[in-house]
Write a structure and sequence with these properties.
Two copies of one chain form a homodimer. With 134 residues, the first copy, chain A, is of the alpha+beta class. Chain A has a three-stranded antiparallel β-sheet. A three-stranded mixed β-sheet of chain A has the order 5-4-6. In chain A, strand 4 and strand 5 form a beta hairpin. At the A-B interface, strand 5, helix 4 and strand 6 of A face strand 5, helix 4 and strand 6 of B. Strand 6 of chain A pairs antiparallel with strand 6 of chain B, so a sheet runs across the interface. The structure holds a DNA duplex (30 and 30 nucleotides).
Chain lengths: 134, 134
DNA sequence: TTCTTATTGAGATTATATCTCAATAAGAAC
DNA sequence: GTTCTTATTGAGATATAATCTCAATAAGAA
């Protein structure tokens, strides 16, 4: 099934790049709608799927929240702040090799993994110290 | 807000234990409904939340699928087979310390992490060799 | 036994994502 | 340039996981 180049597909790719890292499908949809109010939500979702299958962008599935899409900058995973919900990048150099070590043990053919850290970001730590002093 | 001991809460805890590891909320709901057809889905979800906050059970959020709940056997994470959707356990002894190493770098206060591996299980590898020989 | 209020059940609602299908348009064939 | 095939689109319906609403119920302290 040969892929065609559509305006909508380019718009999605451009928006992902413009928004930098970890935008949700909905954020990308809203971004595109500013200039192209007629684009369909389904089209954005479809093209995010197509583009990540093609390897043009990277999908990061986040449990308990919407998937996020990255320009393929470099490998990293995410921390989500449990208070404000914002998502930050985490370098994962030291995680490299994780798959290999597990493949050895299970006969599983690994294709990847998602790691999502949970925590409280520095801002929210400070905020709660001000509002709830002990 | 003092917690009360309700029949429904015990039923949920028992079902999680009975189903062993990585049952979804819906599987737990169906399990309980066999003997107690009047239990509400909301009650199951509510008690799964309460019990995991209390530390009685462990919640494993899985991106792209329903959350799963474990009896607190021992620390492990999960691999989901991309073909059959089944979920298997993976030991994670060597991942211990991950949080500490990241906390140092970011000023983030970490409360935990989820790791979900993706891959193809041995069964499905075999099946696809039979069905699509090269 | 009485009283307070945490908890429940039923159904509505939210959020994320996918599906349906007629209409459109990309790009190959002519 | 014109025709043709079919991938893609837009709009809205649907699916799935989970939470919320609220009157009724019941746990457990008084």
């Amino acid at each position: 099934m040969r892929k065609r180049n559509t305006i909508q597909r380019s718009l999605v790719l451009e928006a992902v790049n413009r928004l930098q890292c970890h935008a949700t499908a909905d954020e990308i949809y809203e971004e595109i709608k500013k200039d192209h109010p007629n684009i369909s939500r389904a089209t954005v979702y479809r093209n995010l799927n197509v583009l990540s299958e093609m390897g043009e962008i990277r999908r990061m599935e986040t449990p308990g929240g919407a998937d996020r899409f990255d320009h393929r900058c470099h490998d990293h995973c995410h921390v989500r702040c449990q208070k404000c919900g914002r998502v930050f990048d985490v370098d994962v150099d030291f995680i490299t090799g994780l798959e290999q070590r597990i493949r050895d043990a299970h006969g599983f053919e690994f294709t990847g993994y998602d790691i999502l850290f949970r925590g409280i970001c520095p801002d929210c730590q400070n905020a709660s110290q001000k509002n709830e002093p002990k």
